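Following up on my earlier message about zinc ion. Here are the inputs again, as you asked, copied directly from the submission form:
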Amino acid sequence: MIFQPEYETLERHALEALQLERLQALVERLRDANEISTEALAGVAAPRSLGDLAGLPFSTKAEMRDAYPLGLLAVPPENLARLHASSGTTGNPTIGAYTKEDLRVFGEVMARSLAGGGIAPGDMFQVAWGYGLFTGGLGAHGGCETLGACAIPASSGNTARQLQLLTDLPVVGIGCTPSYGLVLAERLRAERRRPKALRYAICGAESWTREMRDELEELFGVVATNIYGLTEIIGPGVAQECLSKQGLHVQEDHFLAEIVDPETGTALADGERGELVLTTLTREAMPVLRYRTRDLTSMVRERCACGRTTARIDWFTGRVDDMLVIRGINVFPSAVEEVLLRFSELSPNYRIFVDRPPHGLDQMLVEVEHHPGAALDPDQLAQAVTTRLRETLMISLQTRVVSPGTIERIEAGKARRVIDRRTL
Ligand SMILES: [Zn+2]
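Thanks, got it. Here's what our run produced:
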């Protein structure tokens, strides 16, 4: 179901006219919004076409951190209706501020996302993302209300309670991180219980691959789609995969997307892989111009089989910041995950260790669990996986195949896939 066909299926030229109008208004608003944006836009001409976007300044995570807590506010503080924050791994968290209108837009893009992932008005939707400062829980909650679905505010963690809700109530969809979806699916299977009505999982807030999706769908018995967002822009709901599974639809009337070369910042053509850059076209409290997400993807603008005309971004190859450099070679954890999950004996529970022995070269060890009941010789399988990983990643490494349950499951927050002991 398409929640707002008047925007989601808008003809390209009409959509671009709307985007330009909103971009021009945004730039004018930012000129005297706060000291930081006034300075950034000094001497910058107003855009006369969407092509002029390239002449506008970028904004970065570091600038947002420096502006902590409210340096980037574009409205008087008394106009705010809510604050969220993303936990920074280094330094200050990033604050996301919302006016009442921003919360309406947040609800709207989340309602479109839920509908895109298979949820209909009247359905029960279990929100297993964290409630609180994190945008996931309350964001999805607002989306349910806007869509006319029934939100079950389970929040993250408390697996026994989550399973009870899923098996007792006619819950049609669940929103969670993909790794937590796996935790729930594994527990259901181990306890030989079945959800009463679950058909859809909308997963995000963590990087994952299509291979992981296939695995999750099979274990959980659901159709799983990918949702994308970030606190700096609004939270989840910036883009959502539809049931055609041909990429994630960007809510382009609210968020203007570009793909740029992560090194030079120059724009790349449709289909080329680079860094996603986002501009908030309608955000009031904390608008952002050309935000460098550090997320690597590509974009296409053809009409999708689902009928939506909005641009689609591909599944992320990773984040610029997640890239490991091992003996001078770039390694993305997502590439490791893709290889592992092509082995039917292996489960999606894995970890990557990177070590730097004294006077030695960097070493990488991939530890992965096999599926319960899989007939295999762990050493032989490890050897086969090592060979395949070496061919794909072009570096030497070790693999260890371990029993199901060896690797710690994360009930709340993001799964920790990479343990880089060089930096610890
Ligand atoms: Zn589609």
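One observation from looking it over: The chain is about 30% helix and 25% strand. Hope that helps, and feel free to reply on this thread.
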